[in-house]
Recover the amino acids of this structure.
């Protein structure tokens, strides 16, 4: 990832922890929830791997091709699952964004960008500004929407409607944690796109 090493470390830890939590969520819930958790775990671990600072590890050129292939396959899977509704359209956008970043961050992409914009003082990162802007706009709106959904609604006075005060056990029993993970990954994706 292009950018300061500290931000790369922070993104790597955040995305890795989010991916690990999503992996835990694959054990609970309905098949649809587990499928969504698997896709989010793949995204979290993929983003963590992409955010590894170059000071720690310089990835070989073929790694970017592997990223593009894995997330291209995830995009095709999301297209097939999109007809089921749910969160699959977001997974499609996320997978396409990962393919885009893998192609833009490949070693040859920065030279192509420099040649195309040498008169404008372009940076070392690749990418098409309009496409980067579309992804940035999507993730900015997604983060704002997700953050708004995390704001608690006022509780009615009195005992709970079901009469039970038990909280569901396990990682899948807390839907606000799943939403917080999606918010964290959306924010991380926005930050990674900013570096292009």
């Amino acid at each position: 990832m292009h950018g300061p090493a500290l931000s790369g470390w922070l993104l790597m830890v955040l995305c890795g922890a989010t991916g690990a939590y999503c992996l835990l969520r694959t054990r609970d819930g309905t098949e649809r929830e587990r499928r969504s958790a698997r896709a989010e775990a793949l995204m979290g671990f993929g983003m963590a791997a992409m955010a590894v600072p170059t000071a720690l590890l310089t990835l070989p050129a073929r790694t970017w091709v592997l990223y593009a292939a894995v997330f291209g396959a995830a995009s095709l899977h999301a297209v097939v699952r999109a007809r089921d509704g749910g969160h699959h359209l977001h997974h499609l956008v996320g997978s396409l964004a990962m393919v885009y970043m893998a192609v833009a961050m490949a070693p040859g992409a920065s030279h192509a960008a420099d040649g195309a914009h040498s008169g404008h003082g372009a940076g070392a990162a690749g990418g098409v500004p309009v496409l980067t802007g579309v992804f940035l706009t999507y993730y900015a709106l997604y983060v704002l929407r997700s953050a708004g959904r995390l704001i608690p609604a006022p509780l009615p006075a009195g005992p709970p409607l079901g009469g039970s005060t038990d909280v569901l056990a396990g990682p899948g029993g807390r839907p606000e944690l799943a939403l917080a993970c999606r918010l964290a990954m959306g924010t991380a994706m926005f930050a990674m796109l900013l570096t292009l």
Remarks:
- DSSP finds seven helices and no strands in the chain.
- Helices lie at 5-25, 31-50, 61-82, 88-105, 107-116, 129-150, 175-194.
